[in-house]
Structures are given as structure tokens and as C-alpha cells.
Design brief:
225 residues; alpha/beta; 7-stranded parallel sheet; 8 helices; 7 strands; 43% helix; binds zinc ion
């Protein structure tokens, strides 16, 4: 299992594609437009650019989603950009990597609708609530935990436990969210091992099991060899 290099904008996705091309079999990439940048999302040109990147090998569409915490883009435009990318995921049969923050109801509604249309995906860096995880699981989606679960203020072990083994993912979200004891540093993909250990502890499972199932799940979701 290698590295999934996330494109949060068309430009970033093109850069991620170049990294992936330089490291075949180790780095794969995704292409999408982050909700922060939804105001500038062009439903024709950007949709086409993402479709082109999918044709060039993007394993997923995203990050896309809704962020009502920062509200860097108007919510209506966030929903429009997200809906466009979910529809494209359906057409291109790619999964979606979804960012959601303080937008639980709207995210749940859109995930439910996408799931019914056959779109699969992952809620990345998940921090709750449990009801949103349940909606995603019912839609056939995955739930991914990051270094946040190692932070002292984390109190969501019940959510970690509610995700069945075959839908569980972990991620680094590098360069952000370095897990304890490296909090505050530039995150490194290798430190995802610290997140794996914390997830294993919360689930009362051997860490080797968590490593095995999350690797298998990532391969399944992103159709990796
Ligand atoms: Zn995110």
C-alpha cells in the first residue's frame, strides 16, 4: 500500500498526477475541488478538467464536500460544486473522498442520494457525529479516521467502534494533523501508524488487524492492485 496524493483543486490534482506518474505503483492521486474553493468552481470547465484527470488515472474524485465551519465559499455554491462532483463520480464510476465539517444534515442528505445512485466514497478525517457515520455506512460508504483521534480532546471512541471492520479506513492527512506525540509538526505519511495504534486501542483489537483491514479496504475502495 502506498500513498494517496489528494488533489484539492484542479491545479493540485495536476501536480498530484505528476507525483503519481513519477512513482508508479506507490503513489496514486485523486482530483477534485475542495468546498473552500467552491465559489470559484466552474461547473463546466472544472467538471471537464476533473473528468480529464480521471481519464488520466485519478483513483477517486475529491476532496469535495461541505465546510460550514469556515464558510470560505457560500453554502449554496458548496452544495452545487459537491453535487456536480458526486454526479461525475457516478458517471465515471469513481469513488469520492468527502470533506465535511459542521454540515451534517446537508452532507447526510447528499451522501444518501449519491449512495442510492450507486456512488461510493469515504468520509475523510471523520470526527462525528455518529448519526452521520451511520448514514454513510448505510449508503455503503467508508469512514476514515486521522491523527485527530490521538489528540487529548478526542472523545469519539464510540464512533470508532461503530464502524464495521470492512468499512474502516485510516489516513495521515499529511501535511496536516500530525498525531501525538508529533502534534504541531509537519505530518508524515509514516506516522499513520500512530493513528492505527490509537484506533486499535479504541476498538480493543490488535493493531495488526487494523493495519490489515484498513489496507484491504483502501485497496477495495480505490480499486488498487
Ligand atoms: Zn479535508
Amino acid at each position: 500500500m502506498g500513498i494517496v496524493c489528494i488533489g484539492e483543486s484542479v491545479e493540485q490534482a495536476r501536480a498530484a498526477a505528476r507525483i503519481a506518474t513519477a512513482h508508479p505503483g506507490f503513489v496514486v492521486f485523486t482530483a477534485g475541488v475542495h468546498p473552500h474553493d467552491a465559489a470559484a468552481f466552474d461547473p463546466v470547465a472544472d467538471r471537464e478538467a476533473i473528468a480529464q484527470l480521471v481519464a488520466e488515472g485519478a483513483v477517486a474524485i475529491g476532496e469535495c464536500g461541505l465546510d460550514y465551519h469556515y464558510d470560505h465559499s457560500p453554502r449554496e455554491l458548496q452544495r452545487r460544486a459537491f453535487a456536480t462532483q458526486l454526479a461525475l463520480a457516478g458517471e465515471t464510476r469513481r469513488p469520492v473522498v468527502v470533506h465535511t465539517r459542521e454540515a451534517d444534515d446537508d452532507t447526510a442528505a447528499m451522501v444518501r442520494e449519491a449512495g442510492a445512485a450507486g456512488v461510493r466514497g469515504v468520509l475523510h478525517c471523520f470526527t462525528g457525529p455518529a448519526s452521520l457515520a451511520e448514514t454513510a455506512l448505510e449508503a455503503g460508504w467508508y469512514v476514515s479516521f486521522s491523527g485527530i483521534v490521538t489528540f487529548r480532546k478526542w472523545d469519539g471512541d464510540d464512533v470508532i467502534r461503530l464502524v464495521p471492520a470492512d468499512r474502516l479506513l485510516i489516513e495521515s492527512d499529511s501535511p496536516y494533523l500530525a498525531p501525538v506525540p508529533n502534534r504541531g509538526k509537519r505530518n508524515e505519511p509514516a506516522w499513520v501508524a500512530l493513528t492505527a495504534a490509537r484506533v486499535a486501542e479504541a476498538r480493543g483489537q490488535p493493531v495488526d488487524d487494523v493495519r490489515a483491514v484498513t489496507t484491504r479496504n483502501a485497496k477495495a475502495l480505490f480499486s488498487l492492485a
